[in-house]
Amino acid sequence: MFAVVRTGGKQYRVAAGDKIAVEKLAGEAGDTVTLGDVLLAGEGDTLADAAKVSVSAEIIAQAKSEKVIVFKKRRRHNYRRKAGHRQQMTLLRILAVGEGAKAPAKKAAPKAEAVAEVAPAAKKAPAKKAAPKVEAAAEKPAAEKVSAKKAPAKPAATKKAAPKADKK
């Protein structure tokens, strides 16, 4: 079964299993959304009542589309402006299209148990401490600190021109 849905001011023809990129929708990756504005629905050559059909989709990712360059110019006035824009979009996977279609129920993994199993393993690693820099600086005497710095460069000696022999 297919449906034509409207979202973000655009229309998309979708069927179960399709992947589409639409204007940004609220939600995170893995969330399920229902596209309610169905304009047309059908299967093959027959059309169904679009009011009874709903489309459920899963958010794959929130992303940005390709960059669009905006360039303004007024000739003979030395006026040029260049800007870029990347539109926010949502990638959707269509799960089901049909009358009262709902997403297939997923098994909810107990997240608390998974976190509890991972947490003890993370605690076993000892925390590394950075060497204190203040103590190392305090151990050096002041004379070593000064000698460690480069001595200021002496100005190069200029050569004087040899005296010219007088011609008589």
Kindly summarize this structure in a few lines.
17% of the residues lie in helices and 43% in strands. It has 168 residues and is α+β, with helices and mostly antiparallel strands.
- The H-and-E topology, N to C, reads as EEEEEEEEHHH
Query: Hey, roughly how much beta strand do the residues contain?
Result: 35-45%
The amount of helix comes to: 10-25%
Detail the poorly predicted runs.
Answer: 107-119
Give the helix/strand class.
alpha+beta
Described by the principal axes of the CA atoms, the overall outline is elongated
CA-CA gap between termini = 118 Å
Provide the residue-averaged pLDDT.
79
Reconstruct the topology from this structure.
Blueprint: E1 2-7, E2 10-15, E3 19-23, E4 32-35, E5 38-43, E6 46-48, E7 53-74, E8 79-99, H1 111-124, H2 133-139, H3 142-148
Antiparallel strand pairs: 1-2, 1-5, 3-8, 4-7, 5-6, 7-8
What can you see in these coordinates?
This protein has 168 residues and is of the alpha+beta class. The chain has a domain at 2-73 and 80-103. It is 17% helix and 43% strand. It contains 3 helices and 8 strands. The chain has a 4-stranded antiparallel sheet with strand order 2-1-5-6, with no helix packed on it. A 4-stranded antiparallel sheet has the order 3-8-7-4, with no helix packed on it. The chain starts with a strand and ends in a 20-residue tail after the last helix. Residues 107-119 have low confidence and may be disordered.
Features:
four-stranded antiparallel beta sheet; alpha+beta; 168 residues
